[in-house]
């Protein structure tokens, strides 16, 4: 089939590789040309900018599901990442002396910065036969309006050219213009469900001066929620890590976090973070990011495709609060599903329905779970009477505050938590296991009490008024 893939991010590049290796003709379109991948990871990170992708220099977790896909489906890309300096965070290390089970090898993430991931995939695309890279801006879709379902037959370029296709794969990310383009051609837009995360990100990358510190959590670095701010340390390639402080978007006073000295003062008040900062030096300024939303696009209604010849994947299909790091792994998973779907579909309509059956329910369930946790976090940070350690008040906050916190104390619980975090199990598997939740609550009640830094002290550190 003639396929046109829009967007050369991880989902688009993975789709191009899978489709070309299945024998399809692929044109990969992106406004940015290939980066120079014959350089070091540090040179890639410093020199390659993609202004249209707000999260490009933000921290990323390459979760277990994506790692499994790379190791089994795209091993050349996996090997290239390791050769560039990426590492692995082995979560099965927390099992201690417990007997190992066959699936424990899946309990690991890849430690790598986002530009390095993109560069490894771009390098694979550049040498892949059957893929033509087209550096261009897309201006719209070419849509055939018959008596039935609208059908996309190609894309229109800003330069005036047209790329005809049998199917267009929309991997253009969370800012996909596909809905607008369909409406411009008289076709119905995909219905969207969306919620506001009401978060602002403030991130800064660091490099260890000597050997990296031991794991502080299942995902590597310190992380947590102090009741009015969230924070997480994401481990990267080549002895780097990124600290992200997440602040409520409705409280303007936290916006001083964009200043490096204010950021450092606050960071040192966060549990477990000071030791990491003492062992490292910053390699970037503070990188803010806002306008974070959860969005799910519906491509089928009443068992009927709303449009054929166009398949959204990755963030163009569903994107969630990047704190959860779902995007990369879900994008790779959906790209992997394309080849079998195209190979087995009876016609254009069946292709859409086959992809919906393969990825639709999973994307919707994860959208719902993240939206629910965002909703309850907003309530907590706004001062509403909600207890994060009471499952009857909030199951999402209970999972994060109680179950995740004690997971390393019980092998069965650890496996369940890791498989949930890594997208290896259905999102509702753990919260529906009452025996597991009871065990976690028992372990949590045995922990010594801990008190997070009070909000007024954190604001004093932010504004340097502690004296």
Average predicted confidence as pLDDT: 95
Unreliable sequence segments: none
Q: How much of the polypeptide forms β-strand, as a percent range?
A: 15-25%
What can be said about the biggest beta sheet? Answer: 6 strands, antiparallel
User: Which bin fits the share of residues in helices?
Assistant: 25-40%
What structural class is derived from the secondary structure elements?
alpha+beta
Integer-rounded radius of gyration: 22 Å
Question: Which outline best applies?
Answer: globular
- SS summary, helix count: 14
Distance between the termini: 68 Å
Query: What's the β-strand tally?
Result: 21
Structure keywords:
467 residues, alpha+beta, six-stranded antiparallel beta sheet, five-stranded parallel beta sheet, 14 helices, 36% helix, globular
Give an account of the 3D structure.
Helix 1 (10-21) packs parallel to helix 5 and helix 3 (64-73) packs across helix 4 (75-84). It contains 14 helices and 21 strands. The mean pLDDT is 95. It has helices at 10-21, 41-47, 64-73, 75-84, 114-126, 178-184, 260-267, 273-278, 326-344, 348-381, 395-406, 411-421, 434-445, 455-463; strands at 2-6, 25-30, 87-90, 108-111, 131-135, 138-144, 151-157, 162-164, 167-170, 192-196, 199-208, 220-225, 230-235, 240-248, 280-282, 287-289, 293-297, 300-301, 304-305, 310-312, 318-319. The protein is an alpha+beta fold and 467 residues long. Helices cover 36% and strands 22% of the residues. The strands form six sheets. Strands 11, 12, 13, 14, 15 and 16 form a six-stranded antiparallel β-sheet that branches. The longest helix has 34 residues, at 348-381.
């Amino acid at each position: 089939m003639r396929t046109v893939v829009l967007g050369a991010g991880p989902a688009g590049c993975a789709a191009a590789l899978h489709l070309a290796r299945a024998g399809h003709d692929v044109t990969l379109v992106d406004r940015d040309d290939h980066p120079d991948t014959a350089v070091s990871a540090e040179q890639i990170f410093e020199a390659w900018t993609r202004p249209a992708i707000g999260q490009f220099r933000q921290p990323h977790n390459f979760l277990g599901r994506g790692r499994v896909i790379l190791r089994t489906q795209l091993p050349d890309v996996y090997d290239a990442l390791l050769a560039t300096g990426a590492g692995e965070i082995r979560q099965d290390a927390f099992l201690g002396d417990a007997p190992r089970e066959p699936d424990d090898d899946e309990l690991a993430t890849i430690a790598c910065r986002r530009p390095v991931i993109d560069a490894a995939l771009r390098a694979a695309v550049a040498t892949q036969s059957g893929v033509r890279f087209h550096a261009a801006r897309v201006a719209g879709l070419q849509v055939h309006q018959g008596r039935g379902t609208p059908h996309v037959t190609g894309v229109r370029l800003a330069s005036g050219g047209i790329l005809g296709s049998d199917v267009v794969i929309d991997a253009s990310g969370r800012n996909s213009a596909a809905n607008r383009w369909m409406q411009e051609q008289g076709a119905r837009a995909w219905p969207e469900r969306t919620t506001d995360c009401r978060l602002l990100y403030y991130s800064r990358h660091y490099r260890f001066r000597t050997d990296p510190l031991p794991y502080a959590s299942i995902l590597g670095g310190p992380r947590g929620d102090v009741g009015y701010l969230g924070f997480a340390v994401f481990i990267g390639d080549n002895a780097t890590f990124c600290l992200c402080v997440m602040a409520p978007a409705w409280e303007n006073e936290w916006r001083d976090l964009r200043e490096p000295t204010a950021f450092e003062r606050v960071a040192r008040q966060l549990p477990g973070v000071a030791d990491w900062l003492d062992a490292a030096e910053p390699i970037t300024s503070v990188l803010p990011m806002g306008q974070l939303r959860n969005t799910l696009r519906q491509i089928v209604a009443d068992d009927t495709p709303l449009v054929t010849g166009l398949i959204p994947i990755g963030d163009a299909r569903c994107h969630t609060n990047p704190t959860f790091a779902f995007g990369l792994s879900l994008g790779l998973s959906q790209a992997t599903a394309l080849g079998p779907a195209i190979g087995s579909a009876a016609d254009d309509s069946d292709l859409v329905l086959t992809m919906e059956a393969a990825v639709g329910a999973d994307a919707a369930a994860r959208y719902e779970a993240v939206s629910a946790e965002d909703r309850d976090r907003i309530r907590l940070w706004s001062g509403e009477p909600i207890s994060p350690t009471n499952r009857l008040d909030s199951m999402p906050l209970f999972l994060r505050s109680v179950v995740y916190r004690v997971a390393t104390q019980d092998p069965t619980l650890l496996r369940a938590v890791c498989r949930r975090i890594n997208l290896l199990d259905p999102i509702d598997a753990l919260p529906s296991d009452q025996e597991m939740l009871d065990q976690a609550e028992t372990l949590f009640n045995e922990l010594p009490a801990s008190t997070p830094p009070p909000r007024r002290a954190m604001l004093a550190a932010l504004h340097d008024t502690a004296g």
